[in-house]
Design goal:
Layout: E1 5-11, E2 13-14, E3 26-27, H1 35-52, E4 60-68, H2 76-89, E5 91-102, H3 133-141, E6 146-152, H4 156-162, H5 168-184, E7 190-197, H6 204-217, E8 221-226, H7 234-240, H8 249-265, E9 269-272, E10 275-277, H9 284-290, E11 295-298, E12 303-306, E13 309-312, H10 317-325, E14 333-335, H11 339-352, E15 357-358, H12 359-366, H13 370-373, H14 375-383, E16 387-390, E17 393-396, H15 398-402, H16 404-409
Parallel strand pairs: 1-4, 1-11, 2-3, 4-5, 5-6, 6-7, 7-8
Antiparallel strand pairs: 8-10, 9-10, 12-13, 13-14, 15-17, 16-17
Helix pairs in contact: 1-2, 1-10, 6-8
The structure holds iron/sulfur cluster.
Iron/sulfur cluster is lined by residues 14, 17-18, 21, 23, 25, 68-70, 103.
Length: 412
């Protein structure tokens, strides 16, 4: 039986560019591309993919994920043509998981545009762009049943230092709407929050405050990311000049562990390095990536893995569009990973999950006995306290979670 596909759709427009971000995205009003044209390119990509990849058309889609960028910047009507194209080309599973990433302050006709309406005196309440509930309702009608909110922090000072376009007041009105709507949907609407720790000037106490405020909302799912300074970003530049006041390594470790202990004590399953879910609310879309499932990524910089071939689109909006207009698929690379690279990739994905790798299932799926292929590496990492091998599974220890990237490089 052919397994279902997951589909990721990249919407690479943002109100403004956050100085730490290395995702491919452009400022909406300065992109030089009309967003409706972009949505047409996405349709074109679906059409070309179905024409070029034998057996793709007609496959079942288990999850659809609109990520970015900021997908919530656009009215649901903009998505209509693309959804129609996807519906014509594929079969949507009856229990389809449809996720939309939302940034606070981007769901009204009057979004803040990254400029914050400051009260003229300290007693004035902040002016907040209210989310347009018609827009949200239309997204739900479109098949969205999982809302992922980019909260990042409940502290305006932290949001400002992260260069985020929104403020806490906007987050709160959005969460209020979502929580009420989810209650009305009686289990048919899941919602999630993204938080960041290790922001400039953030203390452990600040982070504890963020976790407590997040927990008070009782989201179904929480993604908790440590800030990474990526090459080429404004934060990397500030860091080089010694002007980025990040928490030290010890504090960042303590922040990771604080999240792990606080959230698991509150009943969340820590199921992937950066992800926590109430029982039954894991992200099925992301689980597809981590378990070696097949996925199709649409849009510039999106990655795909179908029929043993992995490819990525170029992180360039114009090149993406021009290539499609010329009747070609915009692929930056296109390869079937083999040998140690393939194994390393699978180990890396498997170790991201807290339950680790089921060695027997790995052997059946990939045809390799990990304890033989990596006997020395596993023994060394287990001896150092980063890995454990028990009950037929290989997994990271708590100490290993803190240095996961370094552990994973040992398998390549
Ligand atoms: S909103 Fe998200 S995708 Fe857009 S610039 Fe900020 S971090 Fe990057």
């Amino acid at each position: 039986m052919i397994s279902p596909l997951s589909v990721y759709i990249h919407i690479p427009f943002c109100l403004s560019k956050c100085p730490y971000c290395d995702f491919f995205s452009v400022q909406r009003d300065a992109s030089g591309v009309n967003p409706s044209e972009y949505f047409r390119w996405l349709e074109l990509e679906v059409e070309l993919l179905c024409r070029r990849i034998k057996g793709l058309e007609g496959r079942t889609i288990a999850s659809l994920y609109f990520g970015g960028g900021t997908p919530s910047l656009f009215a649901p009507a903009m998505y209509g043509g693309l959804i129609a194209r996807l519906t014509a080309a594929f079969v949507f599973a009856p229990n389809l998981e449809g996720t939309l990433e939302i940034n606070p302050g981007t769901l009204g006709g009057n979004e803040s545009n990254g400029k914050h309406s400051c009260p003229s005196s300290s007693t004035d309440p902040p002016v907040v762009a209210l989310p347009d509930s018609n827009r949200l309702e239309s997204f739900l009608k479109m098949g969205i049943n999982r809302l992922s909110v980019g909260v990042q922090s409940f502290s305006d000072r932290t949001l400002e230092r992260l260069g985020r376009a929104h403020r806490t007041a906007e987050t709160l009105v959005l969460l209020e709407w979502i929580r009420a709507r989810a209650a009305k949907a009686a289990g048919n609407l899941t919602w999630c929050m993204d938080l960041i720790f290790g922001a400039p000037g953030q203390s452990l106490a600040d982070w504890q405050g963020d976790l407590q405020r997040a927990l008070a909302w009782q989201p179904h799912h929480l993604s908790v990311y440590g800030l990474t300074v990526h090459k080429g970003t404004p934060f990397a530049h500030l860091q080089r000049e010694g002007r980025l006041d990040l928490p030290d390594e010890e504090t960042q470790r303590a922040m990771f562990l604080e999240a792990r202990h606080t959230l698991t004590a509150a009943g969340y399953e820590h199921y992937e390095i950066s992800n926590y879910a109430r029982p039954g609310f894991r992200s099925r879309h992301n689980e597809c990536y981590w378990t070696g499932g097949e996925y199709l990524g649409l849009g510039p910089s999106a990655h795909s893995f179908v029929a043993g071939v992995r490819w990525a689109n170029p992180p360039n909006l114009l090149r993406y569009g021009e290539t499609l207009e010329a009747g070609r698929l915009p692929r930056r690379f296109d390869r079937a990973p083999k040998g140690r690279a393939r194994l390393g990739e699978q180990v890396m994905l498997g170790l991201r999950r807290l339950e680790g790798i089921d060695l027997e299932a790995f052997r059946a799926r990939i045809g390799c006995d990990l304890t033989q292929a990596y006997g020395r590496e596993i023994a060394r990492l287990a001896e150092a306290g980063f890995l454990e091998l028990a009950h037929g599974r290989l997994r990271l220890t708590e100490e290993g979670l803190l240095v996961a990237d370094a552990v994973m490089t040992e398998f390549f």
